[in-house]
Amino acid sequence: MWGALLRRGVRDGGRRGLSVGGPPSAAPWSQVVSEAEKIVGYPTSFMSLRCLLSDELSNIAMQVRKLVGTKHPLLDTARGFVYDSRNNLQMRGLVVLLISKAAGPSTAELSFQHNMVSGIYSSQRSLAEITELIHTAFLVHRGIVNIGELKSCDGPLKDMQFGNKMAVLSGDFLLANACTSLAQLQNTKVVELISSAIGDLVQGIYYENSKSSENCLTDDIRISTWKEQVFLSHSALLAKSCQAAMELAKHSAEIQDMAFRYGKHMSMSHKLHSDLQPFVKESSSDAMAFSLNCAPAVLHQEFLGRDAWIKQIREAQGKGNMMDYKKLQEAIKAGKGVTSAIDLCRCHGNHALAALESFPPSEARAALANIVYAVTRFS
Questions:
Q1: How far is CA 356 from the centre of its chain?
Q2: Which among 62, 181, 76 has a CA at the least distance from the CA of 132?
Q3: Residues 6+ positions from 289 with CB-CB distance below 8 Å
Q4: Over the stretch 117-137, which tens digit does the pLDDT of each residue have?
């Protein structure tokens, strides 16, 4: 098993470990988010309304409407901000606000506590908005397509080129607003933390988009390398934002480290949960398409061996290199990749719960624990 499992069961304080059978009485994701938003004071999806309702972004939105009817992925990205049924709701800002409230007021700095609303400093709320803006900017940038790899069925070239221009423009606009707000916090350490997180994101996305060879569908990596890459592309922003929130309140280095650990391990669990969905959903009759570099596939390759894994991929490829994901899914489920990924997801969940024990019992801490239970739930 992936490390010792926490087994203490205390309700209302949030000290419940994840057993082999899974999280205890985990609530659905939407319910967890709704309850958490009540604790921090307001809904957190698209929190930066000052930016999103600005004239500049309204003009961009009007231009993006011209893409309706095309197949540019920027449209799917935009729809995902509003309609998201796969547990990928933007929860980074919400977590920053919850951990800010869970830590409580700082004993080292009392002069700015009049800026607190619902137990959260105004600077921490600004940081939560900045975190969401950065995440959104990178989501939009990921909607840029490689023009050189387009096929005739993908749609007219002019539509794809226009969509790319809009993705670059709108993503840069959001990122610029985030950086401006970050400077206004006037905290050098926080600026350094978030700037390094942006650098991590760029490096992580570079790893995601680079292949060992042009004809290779899957990377020859072990789970340790997968975790390093996922930390950069998915966990660094939340982990460093949680740490920055503690720095803004002048909390100790120990509390800052625990906040970093919670953000890191919770987001790792979230990514593993997302990767596992094609393999654990029982209702779908057709196999969902999945990345051949997702956690279950990487673990499957690690147990099976590289050559045998490549052979299974080739056997699942039909005419025109069309992938039979159902066949490949069954091969992975027959091995140890899925169960090992579930164990790893719960292991990271336990690390996140352990980090929360450094915070006093509260509604906010319980909500943070419930988020962990939600992303380690597989039934």
A1: 19
A2: 181
A3: 278, 323, 325
A4: 778 888 998 898 889 888 888
Distance of CA 4 to CAs 271, 272, 370, Å? 21, 19, 20
The residues, any chain, with a CB within 8 Å of residue 112's CB and separated by 6 or more, are: 121
Q: pTM for the complete prediction?
A: 0.80
Q: How far is the C-alpha of 79 from the C-alpha of 376, rounded, in Å? A: 26
Report the C-alpha gap between 151 and 102 in whole angstroms. 51
**Separation CA 282–CA 323 (nearest Å):** 21
Q: To which residue do tokens 């990178």 refer?
A: 138
Residues 6+ apart with CB under 8 A from 283: none
Reduced to 3 states, what is the DSSP secondary structure of residue 255? helix
Structure-block tokens of residue 15: 């000290």
Q: What is the pLDDT of residue 6?
A: 35
The single-letter DSSP state of residue 244 is H
Q: Give the C-alpha separation, 378 to 92, whole Å.
A: 21
Residue 16's closest CA among 3, 7, 25, 27? 7
Sites in the chain below the pLDDT cut of 70? 1-27, 41-90, 108-114, 141, 143-169, 210-216, 282-287, 319-321, 379
Q: CA–CA separation, 281 vs 287, rounded Å?
A: 9
How far is the C-alpha of 197 from the C-alpha of 215, rounded, in Å? Answer: 31
Instruction: HSE, CB side, 13 Å, CA atoms: give it for residue 186.
Output: 1
Strand partners, 364: none
DSSP H helical ranges for the chain: 29-40, 49-52, 55-64, 73-82, 92-103, 122-141, 157-184, 188-209, 223-230, 236-248, 253-280, 295-304, 306-316, 325-334, 337-356, 363-375
